[in-house]
Amino acid sequence: MPTADRYDVLIIGAGLAGLALARQLLLNTDKRILLVDRRTEFPPAKQKVGEATVQLSAYYYAKVLDLEEHSCKSTF
After folding, report:
1. Phi and psi at residue 33, in whole multiples of 5°?
2. Are 13 and 37 in contact (CB under 8 A)?
3. Would you say the pTM of this structure is higher than 0.85?
4. For residue 6, which of 2, 50, 55, 58 is within the disulfide window of CB 3.0 to 4.6 Å?
5. What is the per-residue burial (b if ≥16 Cβ within 10 Å, else e) of 14-44?
6. Greater pLDDT, 71 or 25
7. Per residue in 8-66, pLDDT tens?
8. What are the backbone dihedrals phi and psi of residue 60, each rounded to the nearest 5 degrees, phi first?
């Protein structure tokens, strides 16, 4: 594993905040980032998603983080 002096930013926790921060830094800076989390699986198999944040999160991921092309689109 590379040594700590090879990174500019250490993000502890790969939850919504950690992943969003990492993505923002990757899009807007040339910082070298180390993202660490105690979990080995993302998202955890038993994780529940809060319904109240779904629309806000979808907008943030699609428009702010420029991930719209990676989002699931359903047809009815």
Report:
1. -120, 135
2. yes
3. no
4. 2
5. beeeebbebbebeeeeeeeeebeeeeeeeee
6. 25
7. 999 998 877 888 889 889 989 999 999 998 887 766 666 666 555 666 777 777 777 88
8. -60, -50
Residues 6+ apart with CB under 8 A from 57: 16
More confident residue, 2 or 20: 20
| First-to-final CA distance of the chain | 47
Task: With H, G, I as helix, E, B as strand and everything else as coil, classify residue 6.
Answer: helix
Q: Tell me the two tokens of residue 39.
A: 């979990």
Give the angle 62-39-13 at the CA atoms, nearest 5°: 55
- For residue 32, what are the CA distances in angstroms to 2, 6, 8, 10, 60? 12, 7, 5, 9, 23
pLDDT band at 75 (very low <50, low <70, confident <90, very high): very low
Stated as kind and residue range, the H or E segment containing 59 is: helix 54-59
